[in-house]
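Chapter review: from sequence to fold.
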Amino acid sequence: MSLFYSDESLANLPDSLPRTTAKLLNPVFDFLFAFAPNRDTLGGTAYLIVEKAGNILIDCPGSNPEIADFIAEMGGIAWLVLTHRGGIGSHVKALQEQFGCAIAIQEQAAYLLPQAQVTPFASELPLSDDCTAIWTPGHSPGSSCVYCAQNGGILFTGRHLLPRPVNPEEATAGFAIAPLRRPKTFHWPRQLQSVEVLKQRFSPETLEYLCPGANIGFLRGAVAVKDAYRHLSAIDCQELRHAKIVS
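The token string follows.
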């Protein structure tokens, strides 16, 4: 089990940050923050990457004025990247109006946001010198991940790859990272194919951390998984072809 949570990054929180707001987020690195899971995205976890060229928000955090204030204090948002339909909060348009951000979403999911101005992409979309949105279909037609080249490489997986218990009946057995076959999974073989594409794209030198967009409760207080490529390469897609549907 390889988890990561940086206590040192607590020192990088603004001094003016209210204690109540601190409960709504977890600092991962001095440039990366994870917001608490929220009901609006069915328990999804959103992330804020702080960059000089403009901050990147991955999926929607909770609709909370204190979260919006924190984002503003950190410099606002240049990009809001929506990795899948479940990451779209009811306040997407309000975020765009408040921060004037561009909204990146894979072109097959763009129709879900008729009320907002979106930047649809096909296979990839550069967001900055270090960050790229990558189409990984399967969970949904427009499912995507975001790769950040900082700190050895960080992959934000939305709901494409998630933590799951190795043994649901034994809490101490740890977790594995895997695609999950849900009742609403769009195309399971395509999702497994997307996993194989990520295996080929990255290496131990380019992928050190993985930040899932849900199920972080299995990480026991952490918000990032270390040794990410080891976890990725351990996924046996051939064996998973006939995986049972899980609720």
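Two observations follow directly from the output. The domain at 3-240 is CATH 3.60.15.10 (Metallo-beta-lactamase; Chain A). Confidence is low (pLDDT under 50) at residues 1-11.
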